[in-house]
Amino acid sequence: MHICISHLTAAVLYLIFIFELMGLRHEIKV
């Protein structure tokens, strides 16, 4: 089973999108 890097990147972007909706990014200073 090979996991494509693009899938991992998409998963990370998806998590960031969730954080954006939850407004947690305002608390986390990136």
What is the makeup of the main sheet? none
> Proportion of β residues?
under 5%
First-last Cα distance: 33 Å
Q: What would you call the shape?
A: elongated
Query: Would you count the extended β strands for me?
Result: 0
One letter per element, helices H and strands E, the order comes to: H
Radius of gyration computed on alpha carbons: 12 Å
Which stretches are poorly predicted, pLDDT < 50 over at least 5 residues? none
Count of runs of 4 or more consecutive helical residues: 1
Mean pLDDT: 81
Structural class label: mainly alpha
What is the share of helical residues? 55-70%
Topology:
Elements: H1 5-22
How would you explain this protein's 3D organization?
The protein is mostly helical and 30 residues long. It has one helix and no strands. It has one helix spanning 5-22. The chain crosses the membrane at residues 6-24. Keywords: Membrane, Transmembrane, Transmembrane helix.
